[in-house]
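Task: sequence in, structure out. Protein: DUF2182 domain-containing protein.
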Amino acid sequence: MGRATPLEVILRRDRLVIMVGILGLVALSWAYIVYLALTMENTMASMGTEVFMSQTSPWGTIEFVLMFVMWTVMMVAMMLLTAVPMILVFATVSRRRQEQRRPFVATSMFLVGYVVIWSGFSLLATLANWELHLPIDVPELVYFIYLQSAVTVF
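Result:
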């Protein structure tokens, strides 16, 4: 067996590489959320009394995309850390399978799948929020509230 290159030595410490990558991604997500909060706070302070009036106008494409990005980043910031133990177990199993020259799936694909699933949730949350901004008359509103209550109960 030949001597391992420095890159191979680092890659063998996959747990450290994965943890640093996940923590970096979570830190970036939280930084974005803090930025959004500070930006919103400054905007609200400059608006004065208009702050208490909610936005009831229908969304355009930009508002939809921004809300989706906000939900997705928030999900990454909050939910990715809960998956760290499973990601590390998956990385260990995957590395062992690779060492045994058996089929394996890269840990990055596992992580991408996790983020895609939470992005799907973010899309559903964005669609629900978008629906609240649609123009609606009172009978439709009553039906909508009834439908939402029924879905929540079941």
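The two ends are 60 Å apart (CA to CA).
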